[in-house]
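#struct-queue
[09:14] JT: dropping the first one here, sequence first, then the structure tokens:
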Amino acid sequence: MDVSPPLRLCLAYREPWHWPQFHAHFALRRLPGVERLEAYSYSRSFRLGTRHGWFRVRSLEHRAALELSLPPGCADLTDQLASRVRRMFDLDSDPEGIAAHLGRDPLLAPLLERVPGLRLPVAFDPFEQAVRAIVGQQVSVKAAVTISDRLVRRLGEPLADSPDGEPMWLFPTPAALAEAPLENIGMPGRRVQTLRRFARAVAEGELALSLADGIEALVERLCALPGIGPWTAEYIALRAFGAADAFPASDLGLLKAPLWGPGGIRARELAARAEAWRPWRAYAAIYLWHDYAEGG
């Protein structure tokens, strides 16, 4: 284990920004072998190409910034990691501008006033998030985390150097998932087939996990794979890439958010209403999910 002190840098953001939002997000979804969460910090293993390591993010009490720590051996990856972490914690958005736009909807306005400045939590690695979205089809978040953790334990690789010497794991590669039989992993056979087909398409370069051609193109590419529908594709665009206008209109939490009243809203009606929220529909989704989680 490298005993040299970690490198540290500050990542500034425009207020308001709320650490409790991200803490709650990770507390619900954390992969035990890959991610660690403490009261005011989050750390995880990472893989960038052939390189791998760990980083830690800490909320600073008296500064509008996060502290990013990484091992000295990753010094040449500082710019890449800082960029990824800024995206993960949505540090570059304009909360006031987004609120001004979404607040034109009289139903959304009270949510925005109650909890100003909610951000869009984004995964560090798009492939990992896409796998977790497929695993999470039609199951609870808790069940999806349990199954994803089994994938890590069965197919991941141990990280040689962790921040405190405690074991950490690297999330499985596309090639590892593509070839794994995945018996007794806790998923229906058809979903296992979907996961393996997806991983193989990524591993062999047939599927480009990228927003270079826009959200619609990514969603179309994903939906072309058997077993992946619009909800999964839109959710991947939102959570894996931070696509500001991605919107999984059929999501149960969005449809049952208390602001719609006891009967909720239909997916077609929600999609129509959401047209007025463009180009910030993903942020509207964050507020609706928050409303759903809080029970109104």
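[09:21] JT: and here's the second one, same format:
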Amino acid sequence: RSLTIVPVVLPSIMVAVGFVATFGRNGTLNAVLGALGLPAVDLLFTLEAIVIAHAFYNAPLVARVTTAAWESVDAGAIETARSLGAGPLRAFVDVVAPQVYPAVLTGAALTFVFTFGTFPIVLALGGFQLATVEVFVYRLVRDLSYAEAAALAIIELVISLGVLLAYLRYEAQSAVRSRGARPLPRKPLLPSTPTVREWVSRVGLAAYVAVAAVVFLAPIASMILASVTGGDGALTLEHYRFLAARQRTAAAFQVRPWPAIRNSLGFAVGATLLALPMGVVVAVLTTRRYRGRKLVDAAAMAPLAVSGIVVGLGLLRGLVFGVEVAGWRVTASGAVAIVVAHAVAGYPFVVRTVAPGLEALDRSLVESARALGASRARALRDVELPLVWPAVVAGAAFAFAISIGEFTATVVLATGADAYTMPIAIERFIGRRLGPATAMGVVLLVVTGCSFVVIERLGGESRGL
């Protein structure tokens, strides 16, 4: 599970850099093939590279959804089928598969939504010759064709929301089916005295670990290796020295590393402070019993189906260009719009992290607080939130990580060098020199990891207080 979940925490632009470092003409794959005496391959700017990258990015999502369904399979139904004479294969086909396939369809639907709305991976690995809807909308925005871009974005939004509604329907049906089910018993993955069948399982596990290491870890390892490797294959720090030199001598219109890091951290802090209360409030609304709850839940999930290009285009035409309110024209700088866009992208993950904890709380604790005179808001503050504080901290970490790696909306709203972030800097570098792009990717990886540690420490201290 740890190997499989790695791509989830990576910004999509970093995935693109890792795949360039792995599958490029001078990448890790060709180096290994050359050492084996095999001909080189060039997958960049091909449909194959884009498909592989999206499979890498979405496989953890499918695995997580399917694993949850597998763990909720009713063991009693399998035992009943076996007692009526069904063999293991027949029991799997007739009993297990019908309980699992809705989750497979759900994973497929979410993969479709996220791939349909992808942008940085296609832009880096396919360019405009393999442009998707997102890339084409971005091109129209760049050419100042805002009306055409808005029309195409609305078509994309309708398709994405339609698939999202189908996902919510399947999720609700799966939740109903799993109630009262007795889960399958867990068995040791590596028993001390394995049988022949268990040896086969061990071989299958080893094969999966090998594939996961190549597919999920190779792009990250290739990016790190490329950041410390020169053109002749020798270890060097020239790419990091290039970043340091760019910091001192870059022209006003060029991206410099330190402002990009500073902007990323500032935007992430602002987006987290905005997304966290939004997410907690929506989580409270989605865990209460009232008419229209499903509509609120669907609205809370909507940003997952709304692409960053659509959000960026909407904010560009609204906050940045200004809107008329009671005769006054309200405008906001690009930085404010970027923070808002990042908060919109991050708060659904806060909702999905905090809501399960609120659902599982003992309602008698809240009722006791209310009986002792606490208001609804005070019961939430003094009883519920302290009990789900680890989920709140986890939601903050998710919102921070999503903001610090967000690229799609930022590239639309970052109108000047002062608003460039680390993902924007990586995209600028990758179009010219791979080495500095990989070095900037490693910087982004380090900053993201350190930020997670700081958030967890601050969250733990606040909980203790």
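[09:30] RK: nice, looked through the second one.
[09:31] RK: Strands lie at 323-325, 328-330.
[09:31] JT: good to know. The mean pLDDT is 78.
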